[in-house]
Each structure stands twice: as C-alpha cells, then as structure tokens.
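yo

u said u wanted the structure for the complex thing, so here. seqs first:
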Amino acid sequence: MTNTETKMPDLKLIYFDFNGGRGEAARLAMAIGNVAFDDERIGVEAWPAYKNSTPFGQLPVLHVDGEEITQTNTINRYVGKLAGLYPQDDLDAARCDEVMSAVEDVMFAIVPTLFMEDEDEKRKAREALAEGPIPLVVRRMGEMLDRRGGEYFAGGKLTVADLKVFLWVRYLRSGLLDYVPTDIVDNIAPNLVAHFERTNSHPAIVAWYEAHQ
Amino acid sequence: MTNTETKMPDLKLIYFDFNGGRGEAARLAMAIGNVAFDDERIGVEAWPAYKNSTPFGQLPVLHVDGEEITQTNTINRYVGKLAGLYPQDDLDAARCDEVMSAVEDVMFAIVPTLFMEDEDEKRKAREALAEGPIPLVVRRMGEMLDRRGGEYFAGGKLTVADLKVFLWVRYLRSGLLDYVPTDIVDNIAPNLVAHFERTNSHPAIVAWYEAHQ
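structre next:
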C-alpha cells in the first residue's frame, strides 16, 4: 500500500466555503483517515477572479506536493487510497467507482437547475428530476446496497463511495432543492436512510462537523 | 499485478453497435492488452426494450463473471488494469483518472445536442460549445500533455486516458458534430493531433479496426 510505504504528500484541497458539494467527500475521507491537509476555502466573491487559474475552470482542485489534480471523483479516489478508504481489490474498486460515478451522473442533471433564474423553468426542471432520474437512481442504488451486503457499497467496509452516497442522501433530504420532495429516499430506499444514519454517526464525521459548523 | 496473479475473469461488454462512444475505449484497451471478452453489440432497435434491464438505464455494461458493472470510466479503469493500461502509482492513476473525467465532462455537454430535433436550437447549442467548453478543454488538455512529457497523459506509457483522448479527438475531427468546426484541435493543440496519430497507428488498434469496419 502506498500510504504505508511512502511519505505522505503535502496536500491542499481548494473548494468553496461550505460543508457540501463536490469537495466535501474528500474532506471527510481525509478527516476519517487522519490524512493531514490544508483545507483552503474560496469565498464566492473570490471565485470569478480565481476560476481561470484552475486547470479546467472548476473546483475542487487538489494540490499534491504542488501539482494540481482536478475532478471530484479523481480526487476522492486518490485521497481515498491515502486514507485507507478505497478498495485494494480491482473488482471492489470498480464497485466503488461505479457508485461514485452514478451519483455524479445525477448531480450533472441537478446542477444546471441551481442556476435557473426563471422560477417556473426551475420548478419544471426540478419536478421532472423528482419524477424520473432521482427516484430511478435512488431505487437502483438501494437495491445495489442490498446486493452488496446492505452495509457498505464496496468490499464490505467503509469507502469513499459510502461518503459520496451519504452526502448525496443528505442533500436530497435537506430541503435545499426546492420542488424536490425531501422524502424520496425515505419512501423508496429506507436502507439508504439507515446507511446515511450509520455514516453520519461515524465518530470522525461527528467530530469534523463539530469543528465545522 | 492482478492480471498476472489471478485468473482472468469472464468478460462481456455490452454496448451499441458502432465504433465509438462510451464503450469504445474499453474495447480498444482489451484488444491492446489481449484480454479476451465477448463484444456484445446492441442494435438501436433493441435498445428501448433492453434499457430498463440495465443497472442505471445506460450502456456500456460490463459483465464480470456475470456481475454487472456500469459507468464508462469505471469500466475503462477496471479493464485498463486487466490490460496493463492503468498506472500502478497512485498519483499517476490520478493523472489518468483526471483526463478521462475531463473528457467525460465535455461529453456530458455535447450529448444533449445529439438529441435536439429543432435544427436552430441544435446549431445554437453546438456553436456555444465550439466557442466555449470545447476549445477550453482542448487547450488545457494540450498543455497538460506537454507538462506530462508530451507523449502520454500518465506514467510515461500508454493508458486508458490516452485511448479516451484519442477517441475524443477523433470525434471532434470527424465532422459528425454539425456546426462544430473540425479543425479546432488542429488549430489549438497540434500536440493532441500528433498524440492522435501515434495512438491511431498502434498495431493493435490498426488490427482492431481492420477487423471492425
């Protein structure tokens, strides 16, 4: 394992200043794995001037000994390995990757609605998501969790895939998405709610949010 | 390495019946790595009835000893390991993942335009892509290739990231995308054209396309 054989790299994660979004799983993974990192948070007002300096005009960006690495699941995978939260077995790794990517697929559909200024357009888009893509993926993800033993998504232990689903379920239940009922997950996949509660009570996650309110 | 220590799994890749799209990099990777697989191709007419039986309503799907694994880059990564086309080093792996994911990001922007029936709407959407996201990623990807030695995107040897970029550049230069000039890559990142030509002349890729015309 790289994380026991080699010196831990200098890590700086750059993301927006809130407890969620595409940088949050990496923060939690490093917190759980006791991986030291600089948690640099960019204010929304600083973003327009900063955007063009990032590799693809997006956050998060992870600096690894000064080299920039981008793309949310790429970063999750890399820090997941450092934190001991990524499977060693190739097929378990694929199971972990698949889950992270499926969540990202749904987020790709949700994100454009965050920037819709016309309320009627936003409502229609959100209602379409709440009737189609969101319940489909919630249902299939719940069935997948059951097929994989009911507790974790890959390899029978906590991985970055579980953190990704945890944050997604938290988001869907939060009420932050107007016109998307907050009880979709509860109604369709109670096992994902149980998975959420288990992850949410992980001591390192509890401690992280006590320190980041 | 898994591919030398363990028995090769039974593999079946299910994707649409054409030489491109989100299943093609995995086909090429397995061809290059001499990984035996069942190359099952679904006709467009069979897709509507088949769609709901897939894990997330999408192709490609990879069957690994009968278990379904989905998501294009997840599959690329898994078969890349089997084929010896995925880096062993964690940071090189992240460099490889980042490139595959950045290409997928642009494809997420392109794919909706493939289904636009209103020609004027399609033209406007394609022109917006050709003026913004496509040249941005082409430019940054070309610079990234240079920073990484100019020949390969990760670890100084051929990986699935190179196959992903090869297919993307081929697509952008193909003329299949109406209203997107076919010379964007040539004008902005000639090194990506050279990368394309090198990859396109790989003996295993030449042989694959001689057998799949």
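DSSP finds eleven helices and four strands in chain A. Residues 90-114 of chain A form the longest helix (25 residues).
cya
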